[in-house]
Design a protein that fits this description.
There is one protein chain. By secondary structure, the protein is mainly beta. The protein has a single domain, classed as Sandwich (Immunoglobulin-like). It contains one helix and eight strands. Strands 2-8-7-4-5 form a five-stranded mixed sheet, with no helix packed on it. The protein is elongated, with a radius of gyration of 21 Å.
């Protein structure tokens, strides 16, 4: 009787819970949306990537939105189900520019399986006062 009750309760719970095991979750921790970085700042890129299946490739790209120049890119090859991305680059820009960080996952055939973006910017270089 207890086993029968357990099975019925389990089926009832599962009918109200949806599981998407093929979903890949990308959580960008840094940079923060709309964050402004000064010239020559170290810009940290940190993210958690999780999947129900093995990942193959994680690509990271920072793009200058004003002229579509890639400021930073890296590909991480992995066969794990999860990865913690922790990278950085030095902001080379001296004036105000809009930037976007895109983190994508690809399968073995090169197809994009997930993508996440965050927008941030750089500040104008402050001029030194004359003494």
């Amino acid at each position: 009787m207890k086993l029968h009750t357990f099975i019925i309760l389990s089926l009832a719970f599962l009918s109200f819970t949806t599981f998407d095991q093929d979903k890949i979750k990308i959580q960008i921790i840094k940079p923060v949306e709309k964050w402004v970085h000064e010239p020559l700042d170290t810009i940290w890129i940190e993210a958690d990537v999780r999947s129900s299946e093995q990942l193959h490739n994680i690509s990271i790209e920072v793009l200058n939105l004003n002229d579509n120049i890639v400021l930073y890119n890296k590909n991480i090859h992995t066969h794990a189900n999860a990865a913690h991305v922790k990278e950085f680059f030095i902001n080379p820009l001296l004036d105000k520019k809009g930037l976007t960080l895109t983190i994508k996952t690809n399968d073995h055939d090169g197809n994009i399986t997930a993508s996440q973006k965050v927008n941030f910017s750089t500040a104008v270089r402050k001029k030194k006062a004359n003494k």
